[in-house]
User: What shape does this take?
Amino acid sequence: MSGNASRTLIALVLQLAALAVLGLAWLGTPWLDARSRPRLLVLVDRSQSVPKPAADQALAELLQAAQAGGVGEVRFIDFAGKASAPSAQQGADVSGLNAGATNIEAALQAALAAHGERAYAGAVIVSDGHASQGDTARALRALREARLPLHWVAVGRPPPEVRLAEVLAPERALAGQRLQVAVQLAGQTQRPLRVQLTARGTGGETRVARSASETHGRTVIEVDSPGTGAVIVDVALEDGDTGQVLDALPDAAVIDVAPPAALLYAQGADGSLAHSLQRGGWSLNVVPAARLDAQAGALDGYRAVVLEDIAIADASPRFWNALVAAVQQRGLGLVVLGGERSFARGGYRGSTLESVLPLLSEPPALDQPAAVLFAVDKSGSMGTGSGGVNRFQLAQRAVLETARGLTERDALGLVVFDAAPRVLIPLGPAEAGTAALARDWAATPQGGTQLVPALEAAIGELERSAAARRMLVLVTDGFVDAAPLATLRARLERSRIDLIALAVGPDADVAALERVIGPAAGLVLRVDQAADLPAAMRTGLERQRARVARGRIAVEQRQALPFAPGLLQDWPAVSAHAVTRPQAGAVVAVQSERGEPVLAFQRAGRGRVVALSSGLGAWTPLWLPWREWPRLAGGLADWVSGVPPGGGALAVLDGPGGLTLELDAPVAAAGISLAVDTPTATGLALPTDAYAPGRLRASVADHGPGLYSFLLSTSQGTQRQLVLRRARGEAQALGVNPVLDEWRAAGLISTWEPGFMAQARRIDNAQRPLDRTLLGLGLTLFLAGVLVDRTRRGWLKLSGLWRRLRPVARSDASPAR
Assistant: This one.
């Protein structure tokens, strides 16, 4: 072969070699340039739930595989409740990471930030997957969008030999039903084991049941419900021989226990509405007025409450506070029916109950001047007692404060008595009488008590008055004579005198006063604490002075009822109704011929409230045989009770960062109200977002472990969903989080394998910089080829250079001595 042909062939070989080398560089093949080797991020979980020896062993295997796979650089991010900055040395400083918590999202965000500054071939995380803070799934999706592959090395605390694996309880139950809970054990279940179940009610009541574990580790326990409302279940696993607690799961489940009846009916009259509703198929729990206090803790599961002629004094403030809270916050329905002991006569004026009613009890009727005579006992027993309280002085203060509430059109008088009566202030203008009361009374407690002469003197004073209302306020400690008083009672009725008797002191003989006065002559109020006398006197006078319209009173419908058909025809007359006035914002559907409200309704918070000043019984005798009565009674019960919204129940998803709700939208989103009670706050309104046609989503931040009660209110009614969040402490995290399988199936993570770097290199080729050593070699080969092909001198120079370099190459290749 000629010299020219040889040069051409060699030049061609050199140029082909140059192209091959440049192609390898273009394809991302690494050689001597450290920049072209893949870089790796390693995230290490340093929280208490991950055993350090197991994590270190997994990390050593990981680094060995990375070195074998040609990784050029490894950066470490240690994390627990917080994440460290990327570092070339793992475990450099973990003191400030808060090992008592796990925030995988924070670690993944740190990895994303590092990847944004300098691209990495992939990331590997060593963790059990249990996170007590942050939203891990959200961070995983962000990694996938950033095209940063994540491999997971699953390392977790080994579970004990036997443990509570699962607790299955019903979401809802009825009062009276035994609560059935299934408990699944895991591990070595062949040994004698016993499961204890504790059911805790909201009022502090508890019920406990135990059952031996079956051979397959599944136990079903039944326990009586401790009450209605939210019942929280705790489960403990005990050694069957020694009783030692092997595992415990507090706050394992919550059960919403509803009362056996839909409506609570408090009956203070003849119960006409109750009979009609029961015939119509409604389930009622009918209780007398005196037993209302026992229902204060049981309102949680009722859909509505009916108060039929109930006075405020029939229940304690605890019941009224619980009732109003249930109406406003939970959406409990309420029907209030008038009668002789309701509205102003029942002490509603200014009460907690009145705050949610559509009708306000009228103050003392200003269009009817009243003559008010006070008869005050000044017997020896009304003086200073063993407790140091002077009842007579308190009675003086009570009379003065009550008198100051009278108007200039009223009249006032005062009689004091012991064995004999004495008129201290003759009946006259209230203004002058009040000024006289403010001065010292010329009376000292002493002597015995003769009630009949005092009543005769007081009645004589009132009979001389021409006022439309005559009222006698009697104050005594109840030690009275037992003389026959039939004539006196008849005189009270004939003179149209309303009598209010206040029996002062815990030892007052109320029964004797009631026998003296009679059941129809007036009102007897017991005042156990003498200090309560002024308030009791003012309230009692107001109650008796409250006006009730009587006679055949025609009524008419002026507004549509809130239930179908809206308008009813031919409303019958009523025989009486309490005179009230509507609350601002209330709808008066039916009113009397004088324009006074008879039936009104409104929304109070989340609840629906109806009030009838005429009641539905003794004051409406013509309504019961009315052809529209069934539709009226049933419609009222249906409307205040509401029905659960259709289209599906609430779905609640529990994540480390809080709770997410998904719900069907049976009505327009504008008509939906969603609120939640959390362990730290009540009545939090939750905004909803439409994320699909007919579907809404809402979220609530983490307020700590405990009970979360969600309330969905729509135009169709209300629905409640209870969620119990357990403490997410590191001590409770065992094994590996099963959610890893879901993330793996969704393509968010990959399982770590020793040969994972081969795939990482392929993925990283497009992002890795070209190897500079390969580029230099390729260009050198290309230029050498050009030089050989173009000049003979160049060929000679290249041949000489090769002869000089060959001995050196041989000496480098020889083994070192």
